[in-house]
Amino acid sequence: MDITKISIKRPVAIMMVMFIIIILGAVSITKMEMELTPETEMSMVMIMTTYEDAGPEEVENLVTEKIESAVANVENVESISSTSSEGSSMVSIEFNYGTNLDTAITDLRDKLSMVEATLPDGCDSPNIMKMDMNSMPIATIVVSGDDMTSDELKSFAEDDIEPRLERQEGVASVDIMGGTEQEILIEIDPERLEGLGLTMTSIGQTLSAENSNQSGGSISYGEKSMTISTKLQMESIEDVKNTPIQIADGTVMRLGDIATVTETQKEITSISRYNGESCVTLSVTQSSDGNTVTAVNNILDEVEKLNAEYPDMTIEVVSESGSTIEDSRV
């Protein structure tokens, strides 16, 4: 069919067709719903599983890893990240853009039903949720490094990345998950403590006085031990050992002379992984008066600078909402 010849031979008919199209377009515009912040369906799903009274390592081994293995073969999965914390498992699944989430969730349910029977007793059934853009962080960043221990990785995220992200325009806060921390354990024989005229409380007060910038730590102990948070101004375990302690007769002794002071790993409260690899995750929350696009662009620029400064580290923005908003303008 030659459209050009028909248009020349029947100009009135062509004009009528164009007129009808214009009228329909005008009517459609008046019927179109418009919002300042329209609802947007994200290609992301979260699987939440509760396993009460279980520690993070137990949750990871008995729940999270099984769920990750089950859903890894679902079609159109782009990435999988997870956080195992005390009593709960959270697995986030990002699908390729354009994936039908209803179909994807049906596939996920089928996969999860195959492993649900293998989950430990007392573990609730996995709960699948679509992600709501308004409740999501504006950016999620994962940090890993082959030459760093887990506690070094977390310290790097807290000391070198978190402060720089929080200084960016439009950023309210940064939450860190995963990694481990070190703490100092002080063990004292109760009988010797009594003989020196000391109490656990008095030693704790002395440590706080020697370390005036300590941020609200707590001291807890069993029959023969006391735990001190490592969020101290003191820079090493030797500083703690050298803390002067005045006993009942006025003599001053080093804490290390009357107690056993050791450095150990703090109880793990969360475990973070991205595509099966251990990492530290930073979730960036937008300030109430911030602009999402501006804040995300600032974050992306800062992460690029961090990668240039620390070439041995892997610092990756795995999800952000700025691109989604910019794409919607096209």
From TrEMBL:
Keywords: Membrane, Transmembrane, Transmembrane helix. GO terms for cellular component: plasma membrane. GO terms for molecular function: xenobiotic transmembrane transporter activity. The chain crosses the membrane at residues 12-30. It holds the Pfam family ACR_tran. InterPro entries: AcrB_DN_DC_subdom, Acrflvin-R. This is Swarming motility protein SwrC. It comes from Anaerotignum lactatifermentans. The lineage of its organism: Bacteria, Bacillati, Bacillota, Clostridia, Lachnospirales.
